């Protein structure tokens, strides 16, 4: 799991190029190609979906080995075999969403355990992958898995129900194919069992509701803040995660002092972290004696900056339009950067910041304003006294940037993925290490979204569990605050009634997608959501963001070229290179458009 989830390059493929995320100032071709905005063309060499391909198939084969040999061994319980079935289905579901049809025969027959090297491969069709591998394995897993996990973070009935419901939902969309998106290998949009899309939408709803009504140990957290608070990791809303630890480099899978920038480190959170350490404040009241006032620290608000990815202005302004009632913007982003210079060895008790006003440790040095201010921001023409091009307002000691002034080099950070360590002491800790937090993969909350989406697509709901009611469970929770990250203060406030009342009477797919973005922003869901619903082109073909230099605060509208064939990622070059087949067979193995 850690070779896929938490790997920043795979993380990039799930978000860059969507309405949520574009490339940051320091992006290389791995990120530029995923944006589809003309900086690089996606191909079999630069698509980092290869991280999924190269990790998933060994996992699948190992799972097949457990399933095949469990009876002969005699000491492996049905529940443990069910875990293997779950993860085999999980990997195939990830693969079929990403690449289209993929091989079920890894060298010894379909879904058989292979022990010999083989350099040929035949891709099955999408319906075959779902109906031969994903659905049967998940159905058996639901029967045999325990309600309570065998180990912390282990597979359960509720988790299997979530993925079966997601798989039914995704397959139903594939059968319906509302925008005539091509598939590969070529296959009729016909279910082998003769069922139609509406049948599978109903199945998705029924299975998701069964998960909600039979939750096992899982439940929603009381506030959105609690979902992602580092001290509350592995909470009862989290059903699957790629785990890490600060107690052992061996079990962490990477250095506890300096991350390698590769799997199995959890370094996804670095990507949308800009170089806030370049902010400068003055040691003297006249503005001289510049020092770094926000230093690199291993705390959830900060972390290691790589600046490879950046949020779009559209997401910051439009997706999170309600920042007053809805707590999810505040529970997603770092919008205030506070002084921590004494931890880095700067002895001054007071520094001088915007307007040469004094600031002390813990006070705001830079603030991203929630709304466009009525008092104009005075921005410098370049980096200015803040050294990052931030602006000033009369009487404020913190530098400010409005959301319309966000650029590829200065933007709100992603708080929800920030690091956390218990060994920082009084210093900055180990901010250059990979995060020792788990990378979350599946949440109990998604059962509500899957069921709601299925209703929108025509599933018949149970009384009181229609699309609006299900979404309002999530929205009501989003209205409950207990802490304000922006103000760094307790905030016991319940806006759930206002949130519920603001929900449209009729829920459509675009509203479901907007709610999913508010709930799961920056977590690796978005590309799959847009591809499943065939809304990628509609919702992400343009976006707004500032430029790549300090002082760039004029939003530019960028156009992406998203073709129908882009709804599948290219088969990785490493797979093609391993095939010992004729040139025409190898060419036909690749998804069309990428040859």
Which properties best describe this structure?
alpha+beta; 595 residues; single chain; 3-stranded mixed β-sheet; two-stranded antiparallel ribbon
Report on the structure:
The chain is an alpha+beta fold and 595 residues long. The chain contains 18 helices and 17 strands. The strands form eight sheets. The chain has a three-stranded mixed β-sheet, with no helix packed on it. Strand 14 and strand 15 (489-494) form a beta hairpin. The protein starts with 7 loop residues before the first helix and ends in a 6-residue tail after the last helix. The mean pLDDT is 97.
Q: Outline the low-pLDDT stretches.
A: none
Characterize the main sheet: 3 strands, mixed
Shape: globular
Measured on Cα atoms, how large is the radius of gyration? Answer: 24 Å
Layout: helices, strands, pairs:
Layout: H1 8-15, E1 21-23, H2 29-35, H3 50-73, H4 78-99, H5 126-144, H6 157-176, H7 197-213, H8 224-228, E2 238-242, H9 249-252, E3 280-282, E4 290-292, E5 309-311, H10 313-319, E6 333-334, E7 336-338, E8 351-352, E9 358-359, E10 364-369, E11 399-402, E12 413-414, E13 439-443, H11 446-456, H12 467-478, E14 480-484, E15 489-494, H13 496-501, H14 509-520, H15 526-532, H16 536-540, E16 542-545, E17 556-559, H17 573-578, H18 583-589
Parallel strand pairs: 10-11
Antiparallel strand pairs: 1-5, 2-13, 3-4, 6-12, 7-10, 8-9, 14-15, 16-17
Helix pairs in contact: 3-4, 4-5, 4-6, 5-6, 6-7, 6-11, 7-11, 11-12
